[in-house]
């Protein structure tokens, strides 16, 4: 099935659409039934039947079907936020006394959630590679969680090797694929059990929604949908689902444009004397570039640079000197953004992830690359004069 067709047309020619060019937004909080028996049967299958907004509705269901098809998954479940998807997914796979193995740097709030689970008897260990994983794994380990490219450092993991290693040890694998989107990387085809996305980023694409999704086999998605999704209440609204559907229509067009601009900016920074390192897997200088080319079909435009400084003040000064990059969290929209983990991430989380003080994250938007490059060059010169 072609990704362009999935994004633009899958499910949009069905009778319930009534020929509408945009899928209808079902705003009703509940659905009614012909009798008690029909209601009872629907409630027993509320992950698939329309009963109450907190379960699902037709607009949300269409977004889920498209996202599942894009990831080559049997099913997908949309949430009101990326953290809603992460929390529900991890909770569905562990119980008191279980252990989670975290490979590489992951989204800061994911680490915070794993620490929160400690009060319920769920422990976790961070490792940098599979060799360290062999030392850290326990009899109680149930789950291997990772991102590729990794959070802030954008390291590349050999996904088939990771999933084979986990399968040999009886671990479920969960991977955050937000950076690449399903357009550029399909982890389920490489053995990952469940894939998570923040839909607030590239999938939405316009910085106007917050949402998350988990995709995978029905055997894992159905119990999650019936239990954690319902009980945690992080239900996606039909209005946000409609924005997801609209974002998907242009995703195959936007991602190559982001890739082009992001690589142009990264190449400029990679040659700049005031920059120690550029962490962009699309650059040949990146240690994981060859592996990335093998398992990815493209590169998004979020990456980090390490300034030639260990000073928080200089990192902050660099950000303040930028004029075309807006200062803010999140990424994946039209606008270019800048953020420094040393200024925004909890110190213990930053240390756990091994993120340097001088690391700055850029999200290159869809503005002209030349404008962004000039802006970065002037800011780097300005920091040099301040130093």
UniProtKB/TrEMBL annotation:
GO biological process terms, semicolon-separated: transsulfuration
Modified residues (N6-(pyridoxal phosphate)lysine): 201
Enzyme Commission numbers on file: 4.4.1.2
GO molecular function: homocysteine desulfhydrase activity; methionine gamma-lyase activity; pyridoxal phosphate binding; transferase activity
Cofactor (UniProt): pyridoxal 5'-phosphate
A Pfam family the protein falls into: Cys_Met_Meta_PP
Catalytic reaction annotation: L-methionine + H2O = methanethiol + 2-oxobutanoate + NH4(+); L-homocysteine + H2O = 2-oxobutanoate + hydrogen sulfide + NH4(+) + H(+)
GO cellular component: cytoplasm
Top EC category: lyase
Keywords, sorted A to Z: Pyridoxal phosphate, Transferase
Gene3D superfamilies: Aspartate Aminotransferase, domain 1 (3.90.1150.10), Type I PLP-dependent aspartate aminotransferase-like (Major domain) (3.40.640.10)
Domain of life: Bacteria
InterPro entries per UniProt: Cys/Met-Metab_PyrdxlP-dep_enz, PyrdxlP-dep_Trfase, PyrdxlP-dep_Trfase_major, PyrdxlP-dep_Trfase_small
Family stated for the protein in its record: Belongs to the trans-sulfuration enzymes family.
PANTHER family: CYSTATHIONINE GAMMA-LYASE (PTHR11808:SF80), TRANS-SULFURATION ENZYME FAMILY MEMBER (PTHR11808)
Protein name as annotated: homocysteine desulfhydrase
Organism of derivation: Nonomuraea rhodomycinica
